[in-house]
Amino acid sequence: MKPQHVELIVTIAELGSLGAAAARMNKTQPAITKALKAAETELGTPIFFRASYGVVPTREGQLIVDRCRKIFGDIKKLREEVAQIQGDYVGTIDIIVSPLVALKVVPAVLRRFQHRFPNVKIGITGGHAPAAFSPLRRGEADFVLGPSPSPSDLPGLQATQLFSTPVSILTGSQSRYLSVTDPLDLRDGRWIMIGPKERRPVYYEIFERRGVRPPEPFARSDSVLSILSMLEGTDLLCSFPSLPIPELRAKWDIGLVPIEETLPTVSIAITSAKDRILTPAAFAFSDLVLEHCREWN
């Protein structure tokens, strides 16, 4: 299949319209239709079908789209790598970061990176394990900076530990839990959680040690701002990485629950796909992250 067919399939899938794909690629719609038909004939299966709201992949077509996205990403990275080897440092690095890394690592690393590579763009998306690792495997991201992959998430990935953080329990600054030291007194509290439903809450362990069923979080959010906003002025509870808490308490009306048991620490890593060939700029970004974390620790 021709490289231009790969780009065509990716563009149609992204825009959901042959007309929009033609406009994006500066071609006529008949030319786009003819090229798509040629790709479908070569592969021996329809890739898209027409719906009332546009075109969508068939079952086989979705597999083709997913593969084409990876190939198209590799072609794009190949062009960037060749340009960078020749001294033209352009392109894009896509990273997915956890809230802790966004607060404590990204700002300093970006300043240093942009000083060295002013023409390389950085795409930053917030995300949490384990969902954050899927874009790595699809070739849609270069790195995930956040909690280390669990053994079940690790196949196909490689991770380098950056640092570990203890975990504390946050609540509102006037909460009735501010003097609680026994975790069992938190059983009836209303808990919120950072991250997706697939992620196991860190606070479960303090209850399971006592043989008590842990309370389920009634709300989850990928946004630190949402979590902090919910905590302010309430009795809600949330397990939270301890490292950024001093800065956050200076800006938000939140407080610490002084329980006498230690919560598990969380290991933070920089993770990439094993089969991902990084550009020179991406290698430099990784080195800056590692250097910054060594200095910081």
TrEMBL record:
Pfam families per the UniProt record, alphabetical: HTH_1, LysR_substrate
Entries under PROSITE patterns matching the protein: HTH_LYSR (PS50931)
Protein species of origin: Roseibium porphyridii
SUPFAM superfamilies: Periplasmic binding protein-like II, Winged helix' DNA-binding domain
InterPro entries: HTH-type_LysR_regulators (IPR050950), LysR_HTH_N (IPR000847), LysR_subst-bd (IPR005119), WH-like_DNA-bd_sf (IPR036388), WH_DNA-bd_sf (IPR036390)
Gene3D superfamilies xrefs: Periplasmic binding protein-like II, Winged helix-like DNA-binding domain superfamily/Winged helix DNA-binding domain
Family of this protein: Belongs to the LysR transcriptional regulatory family.
Ranges where the HTH lysR-type domain occurs: 1-58
Keywords in alphabetical order: DNA-binding, Transcription, Transcription regulation
The protein, known as: LysR family transcriptional regulator
